[in-house]
Structure prediction request, 221 residues.
Amino acid sequence: NAGVTQTPKFQVLKTGQSMTLQCAQDMNHNSMYWYRQDPGMGLRLIYYSASEGTTDKGEVPNGYNVSRLNKREFSLRLESAAPSQTSVYFCASSEVRDTEAFFGQGTRLTVV
Amino acid sequence: GENVEQHPSTLSVQEGDSAVIKCTYSDSASNYFPWYKQELGKRPQLIIDIRSNVGEKKDQRIAVTLNKTAKHFSLHITETQPEDSAVYFCAASRAQFYFGTGTSLTVIP
Prediction:
């Protein structure tokens, strides 16, 4: 039982490049989330998926897209990376809304 | 949307003393309030949570209180130990989680 697994763990991008962050959970959870964590700003929600087939914007969705590929997988795509997107990205999942969220190990992304 | 404020941003206590972290929220419809602990370089992990129909919850040295009328909730850690040193985040949830900005707790041996 691996929980929530994110790939990659580290990534350096050049401005304008694109990439996809992958997230998978093996707990049969319905809800999945993508957060970014910046110093002094806590965890800010980018997008979430309440259930398979649905996605909704969070607090800071600009510059990102998501895909809920199936119940297990929720990916985050940066189409044209900007230095302001340098951050640590966390994927999380919960059984249903308003229950404990389990986090992945994070992806440290640097955009130069 | 929801707005969660957390204070203080940093907190230092002597080993054995108590630590209190406070949060306020704005959306009266929020009904789930978890607290997460994040050690340096690690993922956040749940330490305790409380629902809106409960006023207080305790788990060994950790307790959380909720005042729905005032829209604030607090984390209390008693008999602090060096391994309690970490960043603590509160959150308020109504379908999606909104986090506070975190409190860096240092327990001095």
Remarks:
- The radius of gyration of chain A is 13 Å.
- The longest strand of chain A covers residues 31-38.
- Chain A has no helices and eleven strands.
- Chain A touches chain B through 23 residues (CB under 8 Å).
